[in-house]
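Q: What would this chain look like folded?
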Amino acid sequence: MADYPRGCERSIELAGQTLFLRPIRAADYEREIEFARHLSAQSVYSRFFSPLPELPEMLAHSFVEVDYRETMALIALEGDEGLMAGVARYGATGVPRECEFAVTIADRWQRKGLGRILLSPLIDYARTAGFARMVGMIQSDNAGMRALATGLGFSLHISADDGSVIVASRALS
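A: My prediction, written as structure tokens:
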């Protein structure tokens, strides 16, 4: 496991509030559960492609137990150690030098630019970790994520396996 990347920590002002951005830690387990618990049904569906009444314990653990190389997540907190406002994460796909990203933003923080604020440095981090390509799966009706992905240089294609899914893909070199 790589060392905790303190260089990714920073405070930002967004929508009149201070947010603290930092890599996720295993100690964020309860925070991750609480974050998922407060997402709307639509936000949960957009992220997990199915309804999810509660974030499964095993999944929550995998979300916070990152190695800062093959898996990484950046979170935005309200204040220094407050509620999670959003998270952008990647994980190695098993295809050499490829990782898959996902972004989840709390409903009240959506459409304020937080997705871009989290995903942009995550892209840079993945590049320095040795990944050459980043991909993501987006529900075709998720206009916000499609706009975020294209705005950050991802190309979008309809999935060959499921016409309701858009595959976002971007070279990192």
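Residues 120 and 152 are 7 Å apart (CA to CA).
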